[in-house]
Amino acid sequence: MSAHLTRRSLLAAGVGATAVPLTAGSSGGAISSADSRARALVRAMTLDEKIALVHGGPSDADVGFVPGLPRLGIPDLRLTDGPAGIRQPKTTDGPSTAFPAPITLAATFDDALARRLGSALGSEAKAKGQNVLFAPIVNLARVPEGGRLFEGLGEDPVLTGAIGREVVLGIQSMGVVATVKHWLANEQEDSRHLVSVELDERTLREVYLAPFVEAVIGGRAGAVMAANNGVAGAYNAQSAALLHDLLKVELGFAGFVCSDYSATHDTVLAALAGLDLDLPDDQWFGAPLRQAVVDGTVPVAVLDDKVERVLRTVIALGILDGGGTSTRGGAGEVNTPAHADLAQEVAERGAVLLRNELVGGLPLLPFSPQVTRSIAVIGPYAAIPRIGGDGSSHVSPLTAVSPVDGIAAHFPGATVRTAPGAVAEAGVVPPEVLLPPGGGSTHGLLAAYFANENHSGTAVFTRVDGVVGRTWGTNGPGHGIPAEGFSVRWTGTLTARTTGTHTISTRSDDDSWVWVGGSLVVDNGGEHGLRVRSGQVHLLAGRRYTLRVDYVQRTFRASLSFRWLEPADSLVRAAARLAANCDVAVVVVGDVETEGSDRESLALPGQQDQLIAAVAAANPRTVVVSQSGGPVLMPWLASVPAVLQLWYGGQQVGAALARLLAGEVSPAGRLPVTFARQASDYPARTPSQYPGVPATGSHQEGLDLEEHYDEGLLVGYRYLDAQHTEPVFPFGHGLAYTTFTYGGVLASVSGAAADPSLRVQVSVPVTNSGDRAGEEVVQVYVARVGDPGAPPKVLRAYRRIAIQPGARQVVRITLGSKDFAQWDVASHAWVVRPGTYDVIVGASSRDLRGTARVTL
């Protein structure tokens, strides 16, 4: 274990140490009944039947599948992604609703809406015959480049935990198992199979464990997914300290723990640690686990507990009695008009108006009739609906509304014209620009495949590959090449189609390099998980350049993708001309986020920054619509009067955008992540903090890197507060089409610091001082006065309210002992220290409207 994180600290008593029912409607008696029924079923099982229930199996129609036991009336478990809709890539029974990315939901700061969305996800899962849903993700946005920020719920533990809890309660109200993921400290995609997180005890408890406690224990989740990474030298799926001792014993988790796909590396370690269901197949918990039970390495009682946990969950949620689905929540519905409306509502309520300056004496947004006679809708995502990020959460809906289509429908009297303006996403280098050495009529590169890691000796075979690289997974690329420990070299020429700066990139699992014209352009070397690295090179149209691409596969999975972004100067110029000839320009841009790799940079990819600058110079009435999954840099901000953060907006993204621009709905989203001025303003800037350095401690085999969470409690806005660094847009920021005025903050205390019944009643009057109806998010932060070891302030509560013009509403929020508690590393317990605290009310983490000082 880490010198910071000890087994003792993981065993210490903490929040929620008592076992709780799995569902909101369950009682202790119901769980007792589920326990007894599960035990009776286990007693009736053979060893082989027990083994069959603790690992995944093959299925042509499901993301994950555990065959049931008809002899005992146990239904199949059908498992599916994900947080933004039901993903069944192999099914042919029709599409699901593509809801906005979860970061959009977090931006609503709306617990009730989160519950409704969870119910819709559960309903769609049930309608498609799925009874275990891999959602929600409650890992934090520690690293702004994180590839799955769009799937998470932001940087703050309280907001993430609360929204996650409501999603869980909504999913399980439909009789579908919610699977909270990814346990634990899984805040990056780069090298996620190789890295061990090292963090101190207080940081674990107060930051990274906190949202899991709220979502898993507070939401009574039926399942938890163990992450691919390790903590303190042990894989999550093989850590007895994290699974058995902390999650099951201390927190009293009554459900089952499944592995992320390929997160398990050892049968006995995982079995004894507390992993209950290994996915996706029987590699570890099939025949190897059976043998371990037979020879006594794994006690029968350990196997029985795993089976009981799975059965207890399906019994408590009504799945066993529902004959494969559940009697709870009805039959479920999928792809309904009501769900499409909900998707649009989330997109609208999660949109964040970042900036809205005056143009001609009036705020540019919402559009007035005199500026909507002609509208230019420009950008790589103007005509393409940016539904969600890539990876396991991606959903392909039946229909989707693009921004240009949504705007055209909502402004029927306007002339709406569109242009792409730029290319955002790199594409695979096409075969037609590649030739093997010596040329010829066959397009592609000459590939030499070696059965070693250093391209040495004689190649096992050679061939011409039209597309450079592929995803081999855990298979070798051909006869005579091993699945691990091989290398490939592609050589030939590349002919540029346009003149200008080209961005060349590789996305590879382990080493890859690219040389163009003899110069190294891409260095993606080193043993790592899927990772993108790129470089730029100036090429002339029609000229041939020598090209060499090297790849080395060391361990685990094998994958390489060779891509490029060609210059788009002509596209930028055409877009600027279009903008100059229209009343208003809407530029829709975005980043590229995906499971499996982190973003290289916080800059918008391709020539999107140049596009925005050119359009803003051509038309002073320019609105930038950012469809990113996390923070992006905005070098053009001062030249653009209005910026709307729309995230990945789901299938109704275009319709939601149009209503926001037209003023049919007022933006009321708030940032769940900080937008800093530059990447160096965020924490975790050293290689040791991210993406990790070679491991030096005692780690389980395969954990070759370690990553130190040395920033401690200072995640996101807390770090910028402590460094007195001004962000571009702070956590919690968001404008509306109206204004809100706050009155004085009052706080009254009942109970002492040591009293669990401690309550602090906070009240503040809020008035809509504008001329439009709108919604405000009142945020309550707490700061312990004179405590240098604490963050300057932390979010403890929030309330979203709707107010009519001129109306006044008194917002009342109750804080409890947990809102003033901190983890004491000496006693390994939660304590509320007597002293003075500031209760701060704000419209964001930097827009603070009033403070009440209390003494506990």
| Class of secondary structure makeup | alpha+beta
- Approximately what portion of the residues adopt beta-strand conformation? 25-35%
N- and C-termini, Cα separation: 36 Å
Mean pLDDT: 93
**Sheet with the most strands, sense and barrel status:** 7 strands, antiparallel
Give a verbal description of the structure.
With 856 residues, the chain is an alpha+beta fold. It contains 18 helices and 41 strands. Strands 16, 17, 18, 20, 22, 23 and 25 form a 7-stranded antiparallel beta sheet that branches. A 6-stranded mixed beta sheet has the order 1-2-3-4-6-9. Strands 10-29-28-27-13-14 form a 6-stranded mixed beta sheet, with helices on both faces. A hairpin with a 2-residue loop joins strand 11 and strand 12. Helix 4 packs across helix 13. The protein is globular. The two termini are 36 Å apart. The N terminus is likely disordered.
Name a few traits of the molecule.
alpha+beta; 26% strand
In a nutshell, what does this entry contain?
The protein has 856 residues and is an alpha+beta fold. α5 (111-127) runs parallel beside α6 (157-172) and α14 crosses α17.
How are the SSEs ordered, and which strands pair?
Blueprint: H1 7-11, H2 28-43, H3 47-52, E1 64-66, E2 77-81, H4 102-108, H5 111-127, E3 132-134, H6 157-172, E4 177-183, E5 195-198, H7 201-208, H8 210-218, E6 223-226, E7 230-231, E8 234-235, H9 241-250, E9 256-259, H10 267-273, H11 287-294, H12 300-316, H13 337-350, E10 352-356, E11 358-359, E12 362-363, E13 374-378, H14 403-410, E14 415-419, E15 427-428, E16 434-435, E17 445-450, E18 461-465, E19 471-473, E20 486-495, E21 500-509, E22 512-516, E23 519-523, E24 531-539, E25 544-553, E26 558-565, H15 569-580, E27 584-590, H16 608-618, E28 622-627, E29 642-645, H17 653-662, E30 693-694, E31 705-708, H18 717-723, E32 740-742, E33 746-750, E34 759-768, E35 774-784, E36 794-803, E37 808-816, E38 822-824, E39 829-831, E40 836-842, E41 848-855
Parallel strand pairs: 2-3, 3-4, 4-6, 5-7, 5-31, 6-9, 13-14, 13-27, 27-28, 28-29
Antiparallel strand pairs: 1-2, 7-8, 10-29, 11-12, 15-26, 16-20, 17-18, 17-20, 19-26, 20-25, 21-24, 21-26, 22-23, 22-25, 30-31, 32-34, 33-34, 34-37, 35-36, 35-40, 38-39, 40-41
Helix pairs in contact: 2-12, 4-13, 5-6, 5-13, 6-8, 13-17, 14-17, 15-16
